[in-house]
Input
Amino acid sequence: MEGEPAAGAAPAEVPWSAIEARLEAAAHYWLGTTRPDGRPHTAPIRGVWLAGAFYFYTEPQTQKARNLAAQPVAVVHLESAEEVVIVEGAVGEVPPDGAAWRAVDAALAAKYRDVRTGAGLRLGVGPRTPLVYRLQPGRARAWIGGEGMAQAHWRFA
Output
């Protein structure tokens, strides 16, 4: 099932829904991609967890856009070392004329509001249209707090 881990992929006491809640609530993320020559590249980004996938945007001339054009896989993780969630997967570009683009635009506008004006972040379509990407989870890991830190792992079909 899309957006859900494969059966038996993580301890039963760690529900995937709790991990998705962390991904939804986070304001900032780190994105890791690989340059065409194999060197790693990491950058802070904004994004949204929506319908079982992570969506983010960037300008076409950025290093991450060039990296994803050459090798469309990435890893995203939360910025906190206290609430660790790491998601790896294939990345695909979202066309700017479809329902997914509109859903991501609306979700970004709702999530990232200017405290002074109340205006939300809008992607816009036109001469400076950003690239929007969808990271489909293939694997995920999370550090679970409590008596010592425990790791949970998920694999997706």
Notes: The radius of gyration is 16 Å. The longest strand covers residues 131-144. The chain has a mean pLDDT of 85. The CA atoms of residues 18 and 24 lie 10 Å apart.
